[in-house]
Design goal:
By secondary structure, the protein is of the alpha/beta class. It has 13 helices and 13 strands. It has helices at about 35-45, 65-70, 70-75, 105-120, 125-140, 150-155, 160-170, 170-175, 200-220, 250-255, 275-280, 295-305, 310-315, and strands spanning about 5-10, 10-15, 25, 50-55, 80, 190-195, 230-235, 260-265, 285-290, 325, 330, 335, 340-344. The strands form two sheets. The chain has a nine-stranded mixed beta sheet with strand order 5-6-4-7-8-3-9-10-13, with helices on both faces. Strands 1-2-11-12 form a four-stranded antiparallel beta sheet. Helix 4 runs antiparallel to helix 9 (about 200-220), helix 5 (about 125-140) crosses helix 6 (about 150-155) and helix 5 (about 125-140) crosses helix 7.
Length: about 350
C-alpha cells in the first residue's frame, strides 16, 4: 500500500514499496501546515480503504480545529469517541480469540499489559513485579469482577501495603473510567476514528495511549480485522507519548510492517525528546519537514545532507505554509525517487 504524502507539481507523491517501512515522522512549527497535511493523509487513507485511528491528546482534532483546517468532506468521515464521555470499548485484559495463524503466548500478553501500565510511570522493579502478578491474577479471575480494572485492583489488594503503594501510583488510571465495555461507540471502517483522550492529564493520557496501542496491536496480530488491508495510526504532538525500548511505539515501528500497521507521528520540535526517544523516532523511514523551529533547523539540514546542509537550511527557513521537504523513497506516478522533494 503506497501511502499518500502530498503533491509534486501536478503529480501525487506516495511512499514507495521499497521504503524500509511506511511509517512517517512529521515536524513543523505551529501554523506551518503540518496538521492540515495530517488531515489530508487521514482522508486519503480512508479513501484507500485502510483503517484509520487517530489518538488525540492535544485537541489537534477537535471539532473547532478541524472546521478551521478542512472542509465538510473530512468532517463527514469522522467517528469521534471520547474516552472521558463515551468510554473506550477495549477489553485489554481479555486474550483475543485467534482468527489468524498468529498465536500470541500468554506471557507476551501479560508483558504487553504490564509495560503499558508501568513504563509511562517508571515503576521500579519490585512494583512492576507486583503489578504483573496482579494482572496475572486478574486475567484468571475476570468472570468474578465487573470490569478489567476491578480485577486488577483486587489483584493488588492481595499484596497488602506494597500493593496499596502500586495502586496509589496507578490511582488515576484505575479510576478514570476511560474503558467501558458497554460503550455504544466503536471503531468503524470507512471512517477517521478519533480516540479523544482530552480531559485527562498528560500522564494519564500517556498510559491510556499505551494501553490503546498495545490493545490494537494485539487485535491486529490476532486477525480481529481480517477484511482490512492496512492500519494507519496517527499520533499528533507525539512528544507526549512513551518511547521506552519495550513500549508500544517502538514495537510498532520495529514490527508493524509485517502486520500492515503504519504510524504517523507529528511534533512541533525535536528539542524535547531524549536521545533514546530520537533513536526510536529515527526508525520511521519517511520524514515530512514543514517549516521547523530555530532549534531544529540545523539538525534537520544536516540530516538531509551532511555536505550541502547550508543550502537545505535556507530552503527549510523559506518554506511557505503547506510546503514541506520530504525525505525517503517515493513513488511519483510510478517513478521511484530517493532524493528529498518539495511537496505541497
Amino acid at each position: 500500500m503506497k501511502i499518500y504524502l502530498g503533491t509534486l507539481g501536478t503529480n501525487v507523491c506516495r511512499i514507495s514499496d521499497k521504503a524500509a517501512n511506511s511509517s512517517i515522522l512529521i515536524n513543523g512549527i505551529s501554523g506551518s501546515g503540518k496538521t492540515t497535511r495530517m488531515l489530508q493523509i487521514e482522508l486519503q487513507s480512508v479513501a484507500d480503504k485502510n483503517m484509520v485511528i487517530v489518538i488525540d491528546t492535544a485537541n489537534s482534532h477537535s471539532d473547532s480545529e478541524i472546521k478551521k483546517l478542512t472542509d465538510c468532506k473530512y468532517r463527514s468521515k469522522i467517528n469521534r469517541i471520547s474516552a472521558l464521555l463515551d468510554g473506550l470499548n477495549l477489553p485489554f485484559l481479555t486474550p483475543f480469540s485467534q482468527k489468524s495463524s498468529y498465536s500470541e503466548p500468554d506471557f507476551l500478553h501479560i508483558s504487553s499489559i504490564t509495560n503499558a501500565l508501568s513504563k509511562p510511570l517508571k515503576l521500579g522493579a519490585a512494583q512492576t513485579a507486583i503489578l504483573r502478578e496482579s494482572i496475572i491474577f486478574a486475567t484468571k479471575r475476570l468472570e468474578d469482577y465487573a470490569s478489567d480494572i476491578d480485577a486488577i485492583v483486587a489483584g493488588l489488594t492481595r499484596f497488602g501495603e506494597k500493593g496499596l503503594a502500586v495502586y496509589n501510583r496507578l490511582w488515576e488510571i484505575l479510576n478514570c473510567k476511560a474503558f467501558n465495555l458497554h460503550s455504544t461507540k466503536s471503531i468503524l471502517p470507512g471512517k477517521v476514528n478519533i480516540l479523544d483522550l482530552n480531559g485527562y492529564n498528560i500522564d494519564t493520557q500517556k498510559i491510556l495511549a499505551e494501553i490503546i496501542l498495545a490493545s490494537f496491536f494485539g487485535l491486529i496480530r490476532c486477525g480481529q480485522f481480517p477484511e482490512i488491508d492496512a492500519y494507519h495510526i496517527f499520533l499528533d504532538e507525539c512528544q507526549r507519548f512513551s518511547y521506552d525500548a519495550n513500549g508500544s511505539i517502538c514495537q510498532l515501528l520495529r514490527e508493524g510492517r509485517k502486520f500492515h500497521i503504519h504510524l504517523l507521528l507529528a511534533t512541533q520540535t525535536f528539542s524535547t525528546f531524549s536521545k533514546d526517544a530520537l533513536a526510536v523516532l529515527n526508525q520511521a523511514a519517511t520524514r515530512l519537514y514543514f517549516r521547523p523551529s530555530q532549534t531544529d533547523i540545523h539538525k534537520i539540514s544536516k540530516a538531509l545532507s551532511p555536505t550541502e546542509w547550508q543550502i537545505w537550511k535556507v530552503r527549510l527557513a523559506n518554506l511557505k505554509v503547506g510546503e514541506c521537504i520530504a525525505s525517503g523513497i517515493f513513488d511519483v506516478n510510478g517513478q521511484e525517487i530517493s532524493r528529498p522533494l518539495l511537496l505541497h
